[in-house]
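User: Here's a protein and a ligand (guanosine-5'-triphosphate). What would the complex look like?
Assistant: Let me lay out the input and then the predicted complex.
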Amino acid sequence: MLGNLGENLTNTMKKLAGMAVIDKKTIKEVVKDIQRALIQSDVNIQLVLKLSKTIEDRALNEKPPKGITPREHVITIVYEEMVNLLGEKSHELNIDDKPFKIMFLGLQGSGKTTTIGKLARFLQKKGYSPAIVSTDTWRPAAYEQLRQLTEELNISLYGDPNNKDALDLAEKGLKKFKNQKIIIFDTAGRHKDEADLLEEMENLSSIIDPNEAILVIDGTIGQQAHDQANAFAKTTDIGSIIVTKLDGSAKGGGALSAVAEVGAPIKFIGTGERLDDFEVFDPERFISRLLGMGDIKTLIEKAEEVIDEDVAAETMNAMLSGKFTIKDMKNQFDMMGKMGPVQQVMNMVPGIGAKIPKEARKMTEGKIDKYKIIMSSMSIYEMENPKVIKKSRITRIARGAGVRNEEVKELLKYFNSTKKAMKGIGKRGGGGGINRLVSQFMK
Ligand SMILES: Nc1nc2c(ncn2[C@@H]2O[C@H](COP(=O)(O)OP(=O)(O)OP(=O)(O)O)[C@@H](O)[C@H]2O)c(=O)[nH]1
């Protein structure tokens, strides 16, 4: 998605994760890379300069919070500021009134009609059955395109290719569907000239009185999206924007950031020609994907919450160095109580999900609880030297924990496979805290 922007930014983040030292020079280098990537994606130069200055100032002057390394801190700053560029939080389409009237606006070719189909499908999946009204009297094929779409989706359509009065069509459509929960109005994307088009939108808007006016913007136009959005915003109160064609668009970053500046939230994005190529726009998820970060942010936040950082660091180091004992595994399980099951935690580290041992993937909360009981029947000596746990010790531990011998053996098997997997990961990395683990898998 977004052409090279994602690739360039992901590479910058990988570089950052792999840097031996984080200092003024390396921060400036990272900022330069980000600048280059954004400018290539047609992000407005003023925005780029503002963003890079903020990232640089924060990275150089802010002290990393406790438990966060300078590297994690810079990663977090880049992430946060990029999210800011796109408007921070995601916004839902709140279907409150009945009928809930949605008016689509956008220039011809922006992908308006296709997007109406995508939204209709999205709403259908949520259990709604929207009806559509066609008021585009300028493009003869528009009605036919909607007819095919609505037939495919099995939803109602009102339109009349012989009626050239858009306002009349809107009024009739409103009447026909007054008992529907959701009515979507398609409008023209072209007119005699732009002023006429905008005037028609203003008139239509006063007739339809939309609960939500959605502007569709072609993502391939880059920062020009800003002026286009402003022009439409003058005709009606734009409630949200959908940016289309972000699949492979080199200028998508420019379009998204320009639109975010207009003030109306981007609620959805179009990522292809098929009806399912449509996503709710969530700046945080979007940016973390663009930066190739998986859910690192969540991982970092969760790691921060872990009560005993020393125990966490000790366990991580043990895990990565291969000196992993049952005592470390017990610590790991205790930590997991705070961070969630191991597979979930590991899945948040990009690239690591697939490497989780089979046994770990099958771990359930119930099993973890049982393992904890078994481990509490072991002596410290046994936990630190798991090799000594043979037949008679297994029987004693099983009796103490009130489980079968097989279950103790199963725990030992799980321990051994985890140890092996961790050793493999450690070899690639060299060990040293969650940050190091995270960096390894960003490479
Ligand atoms: N790659 C890609 N193509 C898209 C996307 N959305 C729409 N398109 C394509 O863009 C072209 C124009 O889309 P339409 O929906 O026909 O255009 P329109 O904006 O409705 O045009 P008017 O009805 O005249 O306003 C079509 O070929 C669509 O398949 C998208 O997200 N990605």
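Summary: The two ends are 20 Å apart (CA to CA).
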